[in-house]
Specification:
Layout lengths: L5 E8 L6 H9 L17 E7 L2 E7 L9 H16 L2 E7 L7 H9 L5 E6 L9 H11 L5 E5 L8 H11 L17 H16 L9 E8 L8 E9 L2 H8 L4 H18 L3 E9 L7 H6 L5
Parallel strand pairs: 1-3, 1-4, 4-5, 5-6, 8-9
Antiparallel strand pairs: 2-3, 7-8
Helix pairs in contact: 6-8
The chain binds guanosine-5'-triphosphate and magnesium ion.
């Protein structure tokens, strides 16, 4: 083992929509975690592995931390907590412009553990010049002192990420790589496919629809021969009959757009033609039912 090889787990945590998944994708140079302008996009603990000559940063992307008694949300908080408990270093992402409605839940959870802490004040590309002094003050107030450091970054433009990454390496233990160097994620293709469909639903629907939607893949057939199609059968689960109406849209227009967008993205991901069948089903109040939450692959 090279004495200088650094390797370990970094839990990316923070309030919803602060840019955790965008940051992970940016670090990896690949989209493995879906992103959206609407909160509560991530519903898994997503492993992303970055291997470089210096070592290996093993990230856990986690669901945004916010207070709500909805059972699905409680499961997602538990997931983020489990990543925090397993991490060597905590990477707390804070929105420089809008600190996130539930900033305090993240703060409390971070205070309850004692690993090194790096704070990433994200979206500084959005900060107007005359607001710079306010951001400097905010950065100062978030500085964890001897426990770590604070960085001003933009996950979108890449600003500040090199220094942030180097700090993360410095805080990790010296040890051999834990994953083969070509590992990117532990998410199976099938699950990435379900997530891409969900991302299209986030893009094309509003209000409570994105949060009330789950996607499962019933069939995922790989091509047998070159130039053959992938064949996917997916179910979009919603909680109420009126949500089903919205997702299908007038004359089937919305579900058609979801299907077209998701198919294009899947073809990019799989580098092959894709045949995608979407079916919309009402699974009453699934976000309040642990059996369904698990069945759809979220939480625990
Ligand atoms: N301007 C700007 N926008 C950003 C930046 N990082 C993320 N965003 C945007 O912020 C929104 C939320 O990003 P996500 O990465 O999905 O946020 P998240 O923290 O993973 O959200 P949850 O999974 O819902 O907790 C998206 O519209 C991103 O494009 C950034 O550095 N600058
Ligand atoms: Mg996310």
């Amino acid at each position: 083992m090279n004495e200088e090889t650094r390797c370990g787990f970094v839990a990316i945590v923070g309030a919803p929509s602060v840019g955790k998944s965008t940051l992970l994708n940016r670090f990896l140079g690949e989209k493995i975690s879906i992103t959206a302008a609407k909160p509560q996009t991530t519903r898994h603990r997503i492993l992303g592995v970055l291997t470089e000559p210096k070592g290996q940063l093993i990230f856990w992307d986690t669901p945004g931390l916010h207070l709500s008694e909805r059972l699905l949300n409680l499961e997602l908080i538990a997931l983020a907590k489990s990543a925090l408990a397993d991490a060597d270093v905590v990477l707390w992402v804070v929105d420089a412009v809008r600190r996130g409605v539930d900033h305090h839940l993240a703060q409390d959870l971070i205070r309850s553990v004692n690993q090194p802490l790096v704070v990433a004040l994200n979206k500084v590309d959005k900060v107007a010049k005359d607001n710079r002094p306010r951001i400097e003050l905010l950065a100062k107030s978030l500085d964890p002192g001897p426990r770590g450091a604070v960085f001003q970054i933009s996950a979108k433009s890449g600003l500040g990420l090199f220094r942030l990454k180097n700090k993360l390496y410095d805080l990790l233990p010296s040890q051999n790589l834990l994953y083969p160097s070509d590992t990117l994620t532990d998410r199976p293709l099938r699950s990435l496919a379900a997530e891409l469909i969900r991302e299209e639903i986030f893009r094309l629907t509003n209000q409570e629809i994105p949060y009330s939607t789950a996607v499962t893949i019933e069939e995922f057939k790989e091509p047998h021969e070159k130039n053959d199609h992938y064949y996917l059968n997916a179910t979009v689960h919603v909680e109420k009959p009126n949500q089903k109406k919205v997702i299908i849209g007038q004359g089937g227009q919305t579900i058609k757009l979801v299907g077209q967008g998701a198919r294009r993205r899947l073809e990019e991901l799989l580098d092959a033609k894709v045949f995608l069948n979407l079916f919309v089903r009402v699974t009453k109040n699934w976000t309040k039912n642990l059996k369904h939450i698990r069945e759809f692959g979220y939480g625990g």
